[in-house]
Amino acid sequence: MADEGLRPIIIKRIKKSSGHHGGAWKIAYADFVTAMMAFFLLMWLLGSTSKGDLEGIADYFATPLKVAMAGGTGSGDASSVIQGGGKDLTRIEGQQQQGEDPKTRKRFDLKEAEAELARAEARRLRALKERIETAIANIPSLQQYKNQLLIDITTEGLRIQIVDEQNRPMFALSRAELQPYTKVILHEIAKTLNDIPNKVSLSGHTDATPYASGERSYSNWELSSDRANASRRELIAGGLQEDKILRVVGLSSAVLFDTGNPYNPINRRISIIVMNKKTEESITRENQTVDVQNEEAVQQAVGQDAATPGEADVSPPR
């Protein structure tokens, strides 16, 4: 009994942990999620990349230095990994392309565009011709002068000619002074010319009758020039914008209306031309120089000038 009092007393303490395996499971789970994201990303790329691009990627990883040095079909050739350009990445069929397809890219023909502009300009000039003819028919003050107003379309544009009659001249005899009815005609014409962007050319003409004082001091050249300039001033007074007039010339009797009778009063006239674009460019290009060393440029310039007829091609309207 005495030995039992000397036995040691053993106390067992149980340690309780705060969780299963501590925080190590979080690291493992994060690695798993990362691996799954990489896997699904790989699956998406494989599913949305074309067969040719896949072959290019495979070739690159097989021989990366060869592709890098020599080039070729590879992943860099693809502009987008999404086929069809649609919004639903899980669909391939039935998608609408939202980008520009190089195969169906619009191509513009410069010659066809120029031809279309010429046709549109011709339509404007025909409409202006009809408008002037309607004004002549409807305005009482112009009806009596309809035989002196000749309107036609030439290679230079719309031509409006105001011609003399035997007993009804436009100007005072041998002078550049306009008759009152000529001013009325010019004012009515001026009202219609501001509606289109085309420039205007004026030329004065006389018949072949020599000037009374001879050809030395004052001749038909000066007279035709003065009459053309007097017509210009009257058009501006009638409302024509001054910057629309591009050329004013006097041609004396060099360009006859009636070539069979140089003394016919109809040869005395004022010619107003609403120029087309080609004629306008030929005038504005007169001061440009051409390098004679460039044979091709010289031939082109000469060809363009020859293709644009001048005032000498005027012929009586039918």
TrEMBL record:
Region (Disordered): 198-218, 284-318
Family annotation (InterPro entries): Bact_OuterMem_StrucFunc, MotB-like_N_dom, OmpA-like, OmpA-like_sf
Membrane-crossing residue ranges in chain numbering: 27-46
A Pfam family annotated for this UniProt entry: OmpA
Subcellular location: Cell membrane
Iron-sulfur keyword on record: no
OmpA-like domain mapped to chain residues: 158-278
Keyword Transmembrane helix: yes
Chief subcellular location: membrane
Coiled-coil portions: 103-138
Domain of life: Bacteria
GO annotations of cellular component type: plasma membrane
Signal peptide stretch: none
SUPFAM superfamilies to which the protein is assigned, alphabetical: OmpA-like
UniProt keyword list: Cell membrane, Coiled coil, Membrane, Transmembrane, Transmembrane helix
Membrane topology (UniProt): Single-pass membrane protein
UniProt-listed PANTHER family: LIPOPROTEIN YIAD-RELATED, STATOR ELEMENT OF FLAGELLAR MOTOR COMPLEX
Stated family: Belongs to the MotB family.
Stated name of the protein: Chemotaxis protein MotB
Organism (species): Oxalicibacterium flavum
Gene: motB
